[in-house]
Design brief:
alpha/beta; Rossmann fold; nine-stranded mixed β-sheet; 15 helices; 9 strands
Length: about 350
């Protein structure tokens, strides 16, 4: 007789053991991949639900700041009915008329939003804030513009300027990601779907810039930025390559057990994903795009053994599809952070 499960955690662990996904990639050949991709792509799209409705961008420059080696524009744009997105647009100085550079969508993680990765936080940081930014090597949007890329860094919801009032989400004690996702779900879509859509509209802004080559667009991000990079690589055809840092992992065997301790949030939630596969299977829909994955051996946010397990599963998908050279890894000796050791060479190669 089966053990009777009462505690919510025990019930969930029981489901993990007995509720097997129906569309995990298990093939070896290109035909196996094509058959699997058709089935899994349908499941994945149903998980995300319908996209929001497209509206005119109504792009507006709110503020212009000239820095030593780049110009930082504070912009806002409309992504869907009733939704306006604030972002920074970073443009290298000294570009000639008609000169076009690759564009980068820089996706921030949990924290204060776009200000953390563009260097703004450091300009006004407390000692503790500066230590946190430095420990994460978090200013990768700033690093990108200094390498000659035109960079857009939006605030994802509910971060930065898009954070709801603390009293509404009952902070401290509750996660605004969870509360905001609940609100979005009442209207028929996960919060992640809105953020991915907002990122796709950011690509609209980026590709319209006179100094951007629209055929050479990449995406980079750490942590929740890795989540966003993952889903933008899958869904935005104009993104050609990416770097996913500190995110590839499994929900089933790490995030939902006692090691991960629920290491996920409402902003990352893909409803029903575990019925069909896991994070690495979803990333298989990004094939044939070149993607580099950064993984820290001393990870405390995720778990390196779980990360490398997920990476190896994704590698079997890239191999079967015929693109073994388009998946890479940077296994660095640190904790949860943006490494950057191989990222810039990777992007230069593929963009």
């Amino acid at each position: 007789m089966a053990k009777r499960l009462i505690n919510a955690y025990d019930v969930l662990q029981g489901w993990i053991k007995t509720w097997k996904p129906d569309c995990v990639f298990e093939g070896k050949t290109r035909k196996d991949y094509e058959r699997w991709r058709k089935a899994f792509a349908q499941h994945y799209r149903e998980c995300l639900g319908e996209w929001p409705r497209k509206v005119p961008l109504r792009l507006k420059v709110v503020k212009t700041e000239r820095k030593r080696d780049h110009i930082r524009y504070k912009i806002i744009y409309d992504s869907s009915p009733g939704v306006t997105v604030p972002a920074y647009l970073l443009v290298p100085k000294g570009l000639k008329k008609g000169e076009r550079r690759p564009g980068i969508l820089a996706a921030h993680g949990h924290g204060s939003g776009k200000v953390d990765i563009t260097g703004v936080t450091l300009e006004h940081a407390t000692k503790e804030q500066k230590q946190s930014i430095v420990a994460l090597n978090y200013c990768y949007a700033l690093a990108a513009v200094r390498r000659g890329y035109v960079v857009i860094a939006p605030d994802w919801c509910p971060f930065g300027e898009r954070r709801p009032p603390d009293e509404w989400s009952r902070v401290p004690g509750r996660d605004p990601c969870n509360v905001t996702n609940m609100g979005w779900s009442y209207f028929g879509r996960p919060l992640l779907t809105q953020n991915v859509w907002d990122g796709m509209r950011a690509v609209d802004v980026l590709t319209k810039h006179p100094h951007v080559d629209p055929r050479r667009i990449g995406v980079i991000g750490l942590s929740y930025g890795g989540t966003m990079s993952t889903h933008l690589l899958i869904n935005e055809r104009r993104i050609k390559a990416g770097v996913v840092s500190g995110y590839i992992s499994t929900v089933r065997t790490d995030a939902l057990n006692m090691r991960g301790k629920g290491n996920t949030c409402g902003a990352q939630h893909v409803p029903r994903l575990l019925l069909h596969g896991d994070v690495a299977d979803a990333l298989g829909l990004a094939v044939p795009k070149p993607v580099l994955f950064e993984m820290g051996v001393k990870e405390t946010c995720f778990h390196y053994p779980d990360m490398i397990k997920a990476w190896r599963h994704l590698k079997t998908i890239y191999d079967a599809a015929g693109y073994p050279e388009r998946i890479g890894k940077d296994v660095h000796p640190n904790d949860h952070m943006w490494s950057g050791r191989l990222a810039w060479d990777w992007l230069e190669k593929w963009l």
